[in-house]
């Protein structure tokens, strides 16, 4: 497996790693010599991706995981420690998107979005602490979105609320956790083409609306977010905590 050594010696958990950006992050982390624990509710794809990483020379395992469930988190962290050692990187990437304008958004949908996106991130930040303390510190990166900073398209009220909550949860957790040498940052991708938003791109008018305000006028690639995330996970970002890193081709700059 060719790659750098930015994450040499790190044990990293990536949630939602069966596809989309999480898969790209897990693959890049393994290339950068991290031992990676891929987790997801999608066990079939998660197992396949972990197997592919291992067979190309990387170190990876898959553990089935539902981020809304505390017991499931305890199992993932236990499996990670048993197989690979104490965890020093956690990427809270798993997330869902439900797009409906606010008047048609049900409370049931809102609560589900909140449970997965915010509840899952909260549980990860909380439950990883003992393992990271045993590791002597660590880096947590919470995947928010440009929708956690601006509201620039319709139908995003529930999603934006969760991503804004993740942004502030990150800063508050950074305050609490530096005493253990744990850094906590958020990353804010713009429009990245993944299974989550494939429906946007089936409609040219919708695509034009979304990308019209982006300086680079194209969607991002998963690998472009993975590169920024690798930096936040690595010791190269040692003076960053409570920070937000925007990776959006210039979408919210204008
Ligand atoms: N795609 C974009 O344009 C974009 C932009 C900004 C932020 N994001 C965020 O990036 C993250 C990844 O998005 P993506 O586009 O790769 O999505 P995706 O749908 O391609 O992948 C998300 C993964 O999370 C998993 N998942 C969903 N619910 C889960 C749960 N309860 N427990 C464990 N795993 C669960 C899914 O099975 C899937 O494998 C999400 O947090 C998303 O909100 C995406």
Automatic annotation (TrEMBL):
Keyword Oxidoreductase: yes
PROSITE patterns xrefs: ADH_SHORT
Keyword flag Oxidoreductase: yes
Enzyme Commission numbers on file: 1.1.1.47
GO molecular function per UniProt: glucose 1-dehydrogenase [NAD(P)+] activity
Principal EC category: oxidoreductase
Keywords: Oxidoreductase
Domain of life: Bacteria
Similarity comment: Belongs to the short-chain dehydrogenases/reductases (SDR) family.
PANTHER family: DEHYDROGENASES, SHORT CHAIN (PTHR24321), ESTRADIOL 17-BETA-DEHYDROGENASE 8-RELATED (PTHR24321:SF8)
Protein name (database record): Glucose 1-dehydrogenase
Organism for this UniProt entry: Bradyrhizobium agreste
